[in-house]
Amino acid sequence: RINPKGESVYYNNIGTVYENLNQTDSALYYYREAIRINPKYESVYSNIGTVYKNLKQTDSALYYYRKAIRINSKYEAAYYRIGAVYDNLKQTDSALYYYRQAIRINPKYENAYFSIGTVYLGLKKSDSALYYFHEAIRINPKNEFNFYFIGLVYKSLNQTDSLLYYYKEAIRMNPKDKSFYNYIGEIYNNLNQTDSALYYYKEAIHTNPKDESTCKRIGEIYADLKQTDSALYYYNKAIRINPKNEDTYEVLRSWASKFSELGKCKESISIFQTLISNDMADAGDYNKIGWNYLLTKQFSMSVKYLEKGELIDENNLYIKSNLAHAYLLKGEIEKAKSIYKKYKGKMIYSSMSWTQMVEGGFKTLRKYGIESVYFDEILKLLK
């Protein structure tokens, strides 16, 4: 038979397993069994306190933490945990008192120094925050979060060089945490130091190849730099990570429209092909890719995509107009004329008629060097 002390440890360990599984009722049952066997087992009272703390039952949490202290007045973890309860309640004086009690008992209690630092950071008492974070580093020079929080202090002071130094120290402690690379990339991006920003963002992706948001950040930087191929590469990378993120496609749609306005039809077509290949294209996208194929004199391709758009939205007059142009330029004259005639007299919206839209389309096509002997004939027919 297990001796009573060993049996209580056994029940405590089972309770801890259930606590880690978030099965609080079972955790509390086994913790209480441990106490029944050994009523002086202070760490179990503290564990029960933590269960109640996580359940946001503050009074019960404090009751069990204090019971642990009554059993063992030198039990620093209970003081620390009481401090954390008061910290969460924004009762900073009480939080600081209990954190300091934990340090009084154990002068090498790193978490207590760190937590006092965060309290002072929240109070905007930078000197005190720095003191306690540095004490935490003195105790544990390998904890990257101590360096990160010192960086936050310098961020609040707008001291960018010091901020960057401590963030880079955090990376040195833990080179596999992509968040630190992102933080630094953001700083350099805000400073318009794009080469450095790109370097750190790419390092973030290197540590986590599934980092969709960072791929999009890199894409945005390259877009601002007008490096279209690189921008599209990283946006496509983001799409491969998350093919159903509508926000990404909306950005790409806006780019495609801008490229089209600038006469960069090839780039615009490439983007719409991305939407289509990922089953994210709507009727408007098919219309726009068809229009861009028109402007590049790829009339058969234009017809192909405009007809697909028409299947999605048969009432879209923009698609009808562009499809008529595509038929006309492809040489399918009667198909084109039947569409032009069918919608004669229709209004696209209050200030634009079907005739005006067709006339505007011909005007743009002529600007791109695309001519047809039928343009003037169609316009006469419509007027």
Blueprint of the fold:
Layout: H1 4-20, H2 24-37, H3 42-54, H4 58-71, H5 76-88, H6 92-105, H7 110-122, H8 126-139, H9 144-156, H10 160-173, H11 178-190, H12 194-207, H13 212-224, H14 228-241, H15 246-261, H16 265-277, H17 283-295, H18 299-312, H19 317-330, H20 333-342, E1 347-349, E2 352-353, H21 354-367, H22 375-382
Antiparallel strand pairs: 1-2
Summarize the model shown.
The chain is mainly α. 77% of the residues lie in helices and 1% in strands.
Order of helices and strands: HHHHHHHHHHHHHHHHHHHHEEHH
Radius of gyration, whole Å? 33 Å
Low-confidence stretches: none
Give a quick account of the main beta sheet: strands, pairing sense, barrel closure.
2 strands, antiparallel
The portion of residues assigned to helices is over 70%
Instruction: Round the mean pLDDT to the nearest integer and report it.
Output: 95
Given the structure, what is the number of helices?
Answer: 22
Structural class: mainly alpha
What shape does the CA trace take?
elongated
Give the strand order of the largest sheet, numbering strands 1, 2, ... along the chain.
1-2
Distance between the termini: 104 Å
Q: How much beta, percentage-wise?
A: under 5%
Beta strands, count:
2
Describe the structure.
The chain is mostly helical. Helices cover 77% and strands 1% of the residues. The chain has helices spanning 4-20, 24-37, 42-54, 58-71, 76-88, 92-105, 110-122, 126-139, 144-156, 160-173, 178-190, 194-207, 212-224, 228-241, 246-261, 265-277, 283-295, 299-312, 317-330, 333-342, 354-367, 375-382; strands at residues 347-349, 352-353. The protein has a two-stranded antiparallel ribbon. The model has no long low-confidence stretch (mean pLDDT 95).
